[in-house]
Amino acid sequence: MEEALAKIRPHTSSSLAHQKTPANLLVALEATLKEQGTEPTSTAYFATVLTALEGTIQKRDLSLQEGAILPAELYILALVAPFVSSPVLRSNLSNVLSLTAPLFPALIQHAPALRSQLALYQTIFRALDRQQLDILGVRQAFASVLQLCVDQRPKVRRKASDAIQDVLANPPPPMLRHPYADRAAEWAKDVLMEAGEMPFGKGKGSKASSTGAETAIHILAFLRPIITYLPAESLPEITDILLTLPRLGNTYLSQSCYSILAAIFSASAEDQSSNLDNQIPEVLKVILSSPPSKSDSQLSSSWVAVLGGAIVAYDATHSKEASSEVGRVWKAIWGFMDSAEAATRQAAARSLSEISSCFSPPLISSALADTNDSTTIRKIINQVSKALDALQYARAIPELLSIVSSFLKNLDHHESTTVPNAAEVLLTPLIVHIAELRVSKNFEFKEAADATLSVAMKVLGPAVLLKALPLNLEPSARATGAEPRAFLLPMLAQPHASPLSHFVSYFVPLSEQMFDLQQKAEAEGRQSEAKVWNVLVGQVWAGLPGYCSGSSDLKQALNPGFSQLLSQLLYSQLELRASILKALRLLIDSNVTVIKKSFDEEVDEEASLGSKLSLEDAEANVDFLRSQVESWLAVLFNVYGSVGRESRGMVGDVINAWISIAEEQDTHNAFEKVAQLFKTNLPLAQKSPNANNDLGNMATTAQDIFVLLLPNLSKEDSKVLYNISIGSEVLSCKDNGVQKRGYKILAKLFEGDRVDEDSEAVLKKLDDMAEGLSAAAKKDRFNVLAAVIARLSPQSLHVIPSLIPEAVLGTKEPSEKGRTAAFELVIAMGSKMSSGGVVKRSLLDGMDEDEGAGMEDAAANIEEFLTMMAGGLAGASPHMISATVTAISRLLFEFKDAISSKMQEEILSTMMVFLSSANREIVKSVLGFVKLIIHTLPIELIRPHLKELVPALLQRSHDHKNHFKVKVRHIFERMLRRFSWEEVYTCAGEEEAAKVLVNIKKRKERAKRKKAARAREEEEETVAQPAKIGAGDAFEDVLYGSESEIEDSDDEDVPVTSSKKSSVIEGARLRLDDDDPMDLLQGAASKITNVKKDRRKKPGQDASHFKTDEHTGKMVIDEEQNNEPTADAAENIEGKAYVEGLTSVDGFTRGHNGRVKFNKDTKKRRREEDAMDIDMADVDPDMSPGKIKKTKKKDNPKIGQEFKAKKAGGDVKKGGLEPYAYMSISQAAKSGRGGRQIGITGKR
Question: Ranges of Acidic residues compositional bias (predicted)?
Answer without folding.
Answer: 1044-1054, 1170-1181
